[in-house]
Amino acid sequence: MNRPTLWMEPPPDPQTIESLNLRVAKLERINASLMAHVERTMDQQGGAYSLFQTAIMLEGRVRARTEELTALMHSLERSNEALQAAKEEAETANRSKTRFLAAASHDLLQPLNAARLSLSALTDLAPGPEAKAVARQVERGLETIEDLIKTLIDISKLDAGIVRPVVKPVRLTDLVAGIEASFRPFAERKELRLVTRCADLVVETDGLLLRRILQNLVSNAIRYTESGGVLIAARRRGGATGKLCRIDVVDTGRGIPEHERGLVFEEFYRGGHDSEEGGIGLGLGLSIVQRMASTLRHDIALYSRIGHGTRLSLTLPIAAQRPDAQVPLAPLATALTGARVLVIENDASTAEALQRLLRNWDAEVRVFRDLAGVVTALGTGMARPDVMVIDYHLDNGACGLDVVDYLRRNRGWVTPVILTTADHGADIAAQAQATGAELVHKPIKPAQLRSLLAYMLA
């Protein structure tokens, strides 16, 4: 039996085997390269993904912080709006307070004005020294109330920034002499010495505000001194070429304890002692002194020793030039006999008191409430007055200067005018100056009015 024949391929030659090995090696290199590329690609994708996650996380944080900052900004805006509203409300309230006090001052000072005028007339008629003493006591009470009202109004105006100092050269000797003359009777009633030592200096200040400051300082010094006296001294600091002046008000009172010295310039401070003079005191004097000194930029300092007294010092600049010399007025006659005085006053009590006072001075007086009354009197042949005393504020918002304007335009009467008002506003002072009227603030001081009338009639 024949066996099948098996076919067998001949073995590859060495050249073929080498070729195959080269191809395998090449494929392995290609595979390795591909694997490295895949790994690099995976690494890059992993880094990009990580960066992507980081970016998302940072974006979330930025968004959260932005939302927090936005909320904070909105909160600050609301707070600023609230603060602005509160500021505007406070400013409105302050302006309202100032307007109220300015308006109230007119109504408060009107009855005081009438009372002082009536009291002056009563003093002229009083038969004996006891009646005159009682009248003087009542007058002192009215003066105290008047001073308190004016002080409250001054504080309100200073706080509101309404007061604008008029700084110019002021001669100290004249100012201090006037204060000494005003307070000497007060000191003598308490058996105190009032001494002044004032060099011939001219300072740069507002004369009216400086006078008020020194009046308050001297008044306090006398009020709280039981024995000894009060000294008003003014001298140049830094020798003959010094540019500053120091004004001292020194008393021999009880002194101020050290723990109270920081409080003396606050409102309603009166210390631990009341005045023996019996006057009303609300402790506003030094408070307004500090406000006025601050407005003038004058430094004020306090030094005190218990049992020895107190010194209050005001430092202010020496003026570069001296004030213009004033020609003294010649002595004037005070007799008003037969003088025709036209009074325009809407307050009945003030009008009656003023009429009584003027008639006591032998003047012929015609009193009217408004312009309509004057026009009616002109129609009945009223003669031209020698002088007019006119209230600025009349009924229904009318102005007393309208009477002056009417008489000048329709009658050609350029009559001397005394304009009275309780309003210390600069606009009224400017109107009075433009009209040529003499401005007198209420309450009217009878002696001042009589002297002014005599001067205008001379």
UniProtKB/TrEMBL annotation:
GO terms for molecular function: kinase activity. It is an enzyme of class 2 (transferase). Residues 340-457 form the Response regulatory domain. It comes from the Bacteria. Its EC number is 2.7.13.3. Residues 66-96 form a coiled coil. Signal peptide: none annotated. The keyword Kinase applies. Pfam families: HATPase_c, HisKA, Response_reg. Residues 103-320 form the Histidine kinase domain. Keywords: Coiled coil, Kinase, Phosphoprotein, Transferase. It catalyses: ATP + protein L-histidine = ADP + protein N-phospho-L-histidine. The modification 4-aspartylphosphate is found at D391. PROSITE patterns: HIS_KIN, RESPONSE_REGULATORY. InterPro entries: CheY-like_superfamily, HATPase_C_sf, HATPase_dom, His_kinase_dom, HisK_dim/P_dom, HisK_dim/P_sf, Sig_transdc_His_kin-like_C, Sig_transdc_resp-reg_receiver. This is histidine kinase.
